[in-house]
Write a structure and sequence with these properties.
Helix content is about 25%, strand content about 15%. With about 600 residues, the protein is of the alpha/beta class. Strands 9-8-10-7-13-15-16-17 form an eight-stranded mixed β-sheet, sandwiched between helices.
């Protein structure tokens, strides 16, 4: 189903109202066209009308969750509860669908969507080595959950217990429902995608004498096997049932493992729907204090509006792939050209390396080895996303009081501008670990206030009814590319909320930070072909450090680690650069 701007606004209001009252969600669902009490995914209804029997996802109104769960027992259906998320899965046919939709407290009924990893191309250094060697920060004390095909914790770079502190796989019953999770699994990656992603984030480089270290080599990792090989095609496939079990596990175990970041290199094409269980789940993780990242996708061949639909929510960070020449490659998914649409939110947030990334190889996969049996080389936005997850871990080591909003603001504010790319193609620009770390070390974190409900990017729950406010568009674009906030007003507003010293921001050592999120840019000109379009340089305001001491410099001697990127080589511009679809496959 296609959603226009007005319908999308209703969808998001409905999704977030779920956490307030059943009456509000029922009202919105009826506006969306439901003929029963709950909103029913039209694709699910059409499928069941053919006589199919399949799993579905229910989202409850929190005030009636226990009552609704008990009522489902009377329907004698195979079911499983995602308690922490306020959801459940059931096996339905056309008759039981109508019965379930009438259960008080059931707000929406969605299909079990199938998704795929996001694989393809990557590139540049991000400044992480400078953070390691100058400040000694390596992500120590930070835990990242990798929602992927699992992690091979028998790999020397990803040792179980010391590096991978937990490895989790979902349990299934005969009907196909996920019924829970199993912990303590040594190796859970039969595909290799998740192990490759995990190594980019925090691999130790033990099998390469430190050459292929991850971005945050001392961070802790948790693997959740949300993607499994399809028995028919052999391709890895994610589905709502396993993804939601992983998100539910993350919420239930957040405090136990101090989970701060959740990295997702999988997704699907289509329009954003605020009622989607996956989007509601990521909103819950965000509000619980976790930074959620998604790969933007590899569907650039489809032109604009080709982003992973789960990556455009304002409460998650969308990461696209960059090449070695400060450009976004043609295979990378694009957002919506804001010269022709008011949907300014449809854009990636950041660019990170995604071409030819060498990282850890699962010893139980069929991935081709790159010189050593322990490593493989991959490309795609799937590889770009874990770079940013690792950088976020470095920032949290510098300042554990940073909230998800703080992290998104810092990462986008310090990104390196990409003059040849527009916001709907590259967001704020190329991630810059060094500048982000330096700003994070001096910033005032707002984690306590955030956890008390003072959130910025929760759509209608934070006063943004059309969810156009995110870390890039707030203070930059406002619904249309030609409607810009001036740097004079937006820079102080942002920096006063982050920095200890309010007012005018001064520079340390004369280093100038370009901030795309507060800059000006011309509206894209859709009538001019991209290859010949003139792109004048964007005007970037100068952001300066507050006066005072710079972050402490690490003086202890340490081996200079190598980043997970091979020496730059320009790949041939052929059709081989195209990436597989964004239909929820890892490795975008």
């Amino acid at each position: 189903m296609e959603y226009g701007r007005a319908e999308r606004g209703l969808a998001i209001v409905a999704a977030l109202a779920m956490f307030a009252s059943a009456a509000a969600i029922t009202s919105e669902s009826q506006h969306a066209g439901s003929t029963v009490g709950a909103y029913v995914d039209p694709v699910l209804r059409a499928s069941l009308a053919t006589g199919a029997v399949e799993p579905a996802i229910l989202v409850f109104d929190p005030a009636q969750q226990a009552r609704a769960w008990a009522a489902l027992a009377d329907l004698d259906l195979d079911r499983h509860s995602y308690d922490a998320l306020g959801m459940a899965s059931v096996v339905l046919d056309a008759t039981s669908l109508d019965a379930v939709a009438k259960v008080p407290g059931v707000a929406t009924v969605f299909r079990n969507e199938r998704m795929h990893p996001l694989l393809d191309k990557s590139a540049d250094y991000v400044g992480a080595k400078a953070v390691w060697t100058t400040y000694g920060a390596t992500g120590s004390g930070v835990t990242i959950l990798v929602m992927d095909s699992g992690i091979d914790a028998s790999h020397p770079d990803l040792a179980f217990h010391s590096k991978v502190v937990e490895n989790v796989v979902p349990s299934r019953q005969g009907a196909g429902l996920v019924t829970g999770s199993q912990e303590g699994i040594l190796t859970s990656d039969r595909d290799g995608h998740g192990t490759h992603v995990a190594g980019i984030i925090a691999g130790t480089g033990a099998a390469s004498d430190g050459k292929f270290r991850g971005i945050a080599p001392d961070a802790r990792l948790i693997g959740f096997e949300a993607g499994l090989p399809d028995p028919r095609s052999g391709d890895i496939e994610f589905e709502s049932l396993t993804v939601l079990e992983g998100f539910n596990w993350a919420l239930a175990n957040r405090a136990k493992y101090d989970i701060s970041i959740v990295s997702n290199s999988w997704g699907a094409n289509g329009d954003f729907d605020g009622r989607s269980p996956v989007n509601i789940a990521t909103l819950n993780l965000y509000k619980a204090g976790m930074l959620v990242l998604f790969a933007a996708g590899n569907e650039g061949s489809q032109g604009s509006h080709s982003l992973n639909k789960y990556s455009v929510a304002p409460w998650v960070l969308s990461v696209t792939a960059g090449d070695y020449f400060n450009q976004v490659p043609s295979f990378a998914s694009r957002g919506t050209n804001t010269a022709t649409s008011r949907e300014a939110y449809d854009h990636p947030d950041l660019v990170a390396p995604g071409l030819g990334i060498t990282s850890t190889r699962s010893l139980h996969s069929s991935l081709a080895a790159a010189g050593s049996t322990y490593y493989a080389t991959k490309s795609g936005s799937s590889m770009a996303t874990p770079h940013v997850a690792g950088v976020a871990a470095l920032l949290l080591e510098a300042n554990p009081r940073l909230s998800p909003d703080d992290l998104m603001d810092l990462l986008t504010a310090t990104a390196t501008p990409m003059p040849r790319e527009r916001v709907w193609e590259a967001g704020a620009g190329y991630v810059n670990a060094l500048k982000a770390y330096q700003l994070a070390a001096r910033a005032t974190g707002h984690r306590d206030a955030f956890l008390s409900g003072h959130v910025k990017y929760a759509g209608p729950a934070s006063g943004d009814v059309d969810y156009s406010d995110d870390a890039v568009t707030i203070g930059y674009l406002r619904g249309h590319a030609s409607r810009l906030r001036s740097p004079a007003t937006s820079v102080p507003m942002f920096l006063r909320s982050l920095l200890t010293v309010p007012g005018v921001v001064t520079l340390v050592g004369g280093v100038t930070l370009g901030v795309l999120a507060f800059g000006r840019t011309r509206p894209p000109a859709p009538s001019v072909p991209r290859a010949s379009a003139a792109r004048p340089p964007q005007t970037m305001p100068t952001v300066r450090w507050p006066s005072g001491p710079a972050p402490p410099v690490h003086s202890a001697s340490r081996t200079r680690p190598a980043i997970l990127v091979p020496p730059p080589q320009r790949p041939p511009a052929t059709s081989a650069q195209r990436v597989e679809g964004l239909q929820q496959r890892p490795g975008r």
